[in-house]
């Protein structure tokens, strides 16, 4: 058994070491926690020394291990006595004296042996007797601790008392047998270390249940779940081993058949737990119900729920993700989500393992009003058996017709009822208590906020589409207004010049231009996009064309050019002409007939072309320039719409240019546009059309 002792005590030392390190980093002060760490550390050193004794059998090492064994018992006594102290001072006097007496007796026996004051056989007998007294006193102290505890506090100390009691009981058997036969049983001594190491999980469980020890410890439910599965596997292997031993010792022709049967049964059982969510759910419910004071590890559940909702995708939309996240909390396989639409009705939005339902609930229906006002989770089984608890709630027929329906969870945010989820019956029997209801209520608020943001994002996207369409419509209406102004001016002059052939020719040209522009605008509005592709535009030719279009208006538009460089830019011809034409029209509207309106082109820079539209009209105030000019729907004209300047500024910026307004009341306005020049446009742009007005 030497090899068993070496590995057994070594494993015990390693286990105590890991547990001691965990306790050390979890310790936040406090005497009970400090003494527990001391007891674990001394036990670790004792187990390591015992492993060395089994390996070397050195006499001095054996005496050292006996001293460590005494220290181990003394440290556990100190830990128990500290726990006993708050339970009554009168109860702690004799245990302290008894513990001190046993430790003193153990030390005296060791001293007598080292000084050869007693024969060797007597030293062995007395030593075993003192360790037997240690085990008996340990059992008495554990019994006193459990008996002194209030009934409501025993739950937290039960694992500790069970662990310490089992450890002292093992020592009682070992030393009682040794006292009777004057020697320790080597087989029992060899497994002593493993026996004590197996008790560590019970001590850790009590530490997690008693915050007063100031040990910040937690026991993972996932670890318990997997540990239970591992223990179950071990039990199965023990059954297989027992059957094998039976066949080996008792014989029989059915041994191989039994072996194959057990192997097949084990594989089937493994497959059931791997592929069956219902069986895993039953095991999880069993563990949560019997091993933990609270059903849920709220931190892990909340993190898991938040991560599940945040990671919408993997083939599931946000609605299905919400259903799955809520159903996983109660072991449900799925359900359906009803969301509020723009008309205040609740329609099925998403489903998971549930048939399609055409059910529609109005906002003022009894179900929706109940969910909105009470925010209760409706347990349909409870509703059928104890309907009075739901204060007269009447469920709709469509909900009662869903055979697998189990829970109705409201999704309520600060703005009201966003929707509700109908969950299917769970995979395993699942009890709905206050803890489940609190978790579902908290989770539904988080889910409701996500769904509300989803609806807000969809509404915002739709509003932006309408805004884009309305903005385009506003620009089109603005252009139509200018075209109507041209037609109105033509009709106004027709009375005086209708017999003039030159006027008639100009009138026909104006009507053709207006008809062409209106056709382009209507096509652009219908297709919701620009039909004017970007190309090389000659600003000099465009300026002359604007002058020609405005020739019937006063004052006449003048065009000047400075510099010998190219006046070509990359732009949308129709839009750029509309922008410059708008600026010229504004200048004409603000300038009397005897004033001055001009377009000046400056091509003296190689990288840009400057267009300046200048007039001697009424001008604008500094406050209007600063606060209102660039904003849409702001204008100084009685019949203006106030979007021309806004469109101009937006488009010039889109081309990579810049626009600047200089104006002063009574002295006119100057608008300067700088646009990037089209470098080598004629050679570098294959297939690009050159626009000449």
What this model shows, in words?
This protein has 693 residues and is of the alpha+beta class. 62% of the residues lie in helices and 12% in strands. The strands form 3 sheets. Strands 3-2-1-6-5-4 form a 6-stranded antiparallel beta sheet, sandwiched between helices. The protein has a 5-stranded mixed beta sheet with strand order 8-10-11-13-12, with helices on one face. Strands 9-7-14 form a 3-stranded mixed beta sheet. A hairpin with a 4-residue loop joins strand 1 and strand 2. Helix 1 (2-26) runs antiparallel to helix 2, helix 6 packs antiparallel against helix 9 and helix 13 (298-310) packs antiparallel against helix 14 (318-329). It is elongated, with a radius of gyration of 46 Å.
Blueprint of the fold:
Layout: H1 2-26, H2 31-56, H3 59-84, H4 93-114, H5 120-148, H6 154-181, H7 186-190, H8 192-197, H9 200-209, H10 221-250, H11 255-275, H12 277-291, H13 298-310, H14 318-329, E1 335-340, E2 345-352, E3 360-362, H15 366-374, E4 378-379, H16 380-385, H17 397-400, E5 405-413, E6 416-424, H18 434-497, H19 501-527, E7 535-538, H20 539-549, E8 557-562, E9 568-571, H21 573-590, E10 597-602, E11 608-615, H22 622-627, H23 644-654, E12 658-664, E13 668-676, H24 681-684, E14 690-691
Parallel strand pairs: 7-14, 8-10
Antiparallel strand pairs: 1-2, 1-6, 2-3, 4-5, 5-6, 7-9, 10-11, 11-13, 12-13
Helix pairs in contact: 1-2, 2-3, 3-4, 3-5, 4-5, 5-6, 6-9, 10-11, 13-14, 13-18, 14-18, 18-19, 21-23
């Amino acid at each position: 058994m030497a090899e068993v002792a070496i590995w057994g005590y070594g494993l015990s030392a390693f286990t105590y070491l890991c547990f001691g390190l965990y306790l050390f980093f979890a310790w936040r002060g406090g005497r009970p926690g400090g003494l527990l760490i001391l007891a674990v550390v001394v036990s670790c050193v004792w187990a390591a020394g015992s492993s060395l004794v089994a390996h070397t059998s050195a006499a001095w090492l054996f005496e050292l291990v006996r001293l460590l064994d005494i220290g181990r018992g003394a440290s556990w006594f100190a830990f128990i006595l500290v726990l006993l102290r708050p339970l009554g001072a009168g109860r702690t006097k004799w245990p302290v004296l008894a513990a001190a007496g046993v430790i003193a007796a153990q030390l005296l026996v060791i001293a007598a042996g080292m000084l050869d004051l007693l024969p060797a056989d007597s030293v062995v007998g007395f030593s075993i007797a003192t360790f037997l007294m240690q085990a008996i006193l340990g059992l008495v102290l554990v019994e006193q601790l459990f008996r002194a505890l209030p009934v409501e506090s025993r739950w937290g100390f039960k694992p500790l008392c069970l662990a310490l009691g089992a450890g002292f009981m093992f020592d009682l058997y070992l030393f009682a047998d040794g006292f009777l036969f004057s020697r320790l049983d080597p087989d029992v001594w060899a497994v002593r270390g493993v026996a004590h190491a197996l008790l560590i999980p019970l001590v850790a469980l009590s530490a997690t249940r008693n915050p007063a020890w100031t040990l910040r410890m937690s026991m993972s439910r996932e670890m318990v779940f997997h540990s239970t599965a591992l223990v179950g596997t071990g039990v199965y292997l023990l059954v297989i081993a027992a059957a094998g031993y039976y066949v080996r010792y008792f014989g029989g022709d059915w041994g191989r058949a039994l072996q194959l049967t057990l192997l097949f049964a084990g594989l089937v059982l493994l497959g059931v737990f791997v592929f069956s969510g219902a069986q895993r759910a039953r095991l999880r419910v069993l563990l949560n119900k019997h091993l933990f004071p609270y059903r849920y590890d709220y931190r892990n559940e909340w993190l898991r729920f938040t991560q599940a909702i945040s990671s919408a995708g993997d083939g599931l939309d946000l609605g299905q993700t919400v259903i799955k996240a809520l159903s996983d909390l109660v072991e449900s396989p799925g359900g359906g989500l009803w969301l509020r639409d723009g008309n205040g009705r609740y329609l099925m939005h998403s489903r998971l393992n549930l048939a399609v339902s055409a059910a529609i609930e109005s906002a003022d229906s009894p179900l929706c009003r109940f969910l909105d006002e009470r925010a209760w989770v409706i347990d349909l089984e409870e509703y059928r058996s104890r309907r009075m608890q739901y204060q007269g709630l009447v469920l709709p027929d469509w909900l009662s017709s869903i055979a697998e329906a189990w829970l109705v969870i409201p999704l309520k945010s600060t703005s009201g009822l966003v929707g509700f989820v109908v969950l299917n019956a769970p995979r395993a029997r699942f009890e709905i208590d206050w803890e489940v209801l609190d978790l579902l209520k908290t989770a539904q608020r988080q889910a409701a906020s996500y769904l509300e943001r989803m609806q807000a994002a969809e509404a915002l996207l739709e509003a932006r589409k309408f805004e884009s369409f309305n903005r385009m419509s506003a620009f089109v209406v603005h252009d139509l207004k200018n075209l109507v102004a041209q037609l109105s001016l033509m009709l106004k002059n027709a009375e005086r010049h209708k017999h003039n052939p030159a006027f008639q020719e100009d009138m026909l040209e104006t009507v053709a231009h207006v008809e062409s522009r209106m056709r382009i605008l209507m096509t652009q509005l219908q297709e919701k996009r620009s039909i004017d592709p970007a190309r090389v535009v000659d600003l000099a030719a465009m300026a002359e064309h604007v002058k020609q279009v405005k020739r019937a208006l006063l004052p006449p538009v003048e065009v000047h050019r400075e510099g010998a460089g190219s006046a070509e830019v990359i732009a949308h011809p129709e839009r750029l002409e509309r922008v410059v034409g708008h600026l010229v029209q504004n200048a004409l509207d603000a300038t009397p007939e005897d004033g001055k309106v001009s377009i000046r082109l400056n091509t003296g820079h190689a990288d840009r072309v400057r267009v300046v539209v200048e007039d001697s009209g009424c001008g604008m105030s500094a406050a209007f320039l600063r606060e209102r000019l660039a904003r849409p729907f702001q204008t100084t004209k009685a019949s203006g719409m106030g979007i021309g300047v806004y469109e101009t500024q937006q488009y010039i910026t889109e081309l990579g240019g810049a626009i600047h307004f200089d104006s002063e009341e009574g002295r006119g306005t100057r608008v300067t546009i700088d646009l990037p020049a089209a470098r080598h446009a004629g050679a570098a742009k294959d297939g690009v059309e050159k626009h000449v007005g």
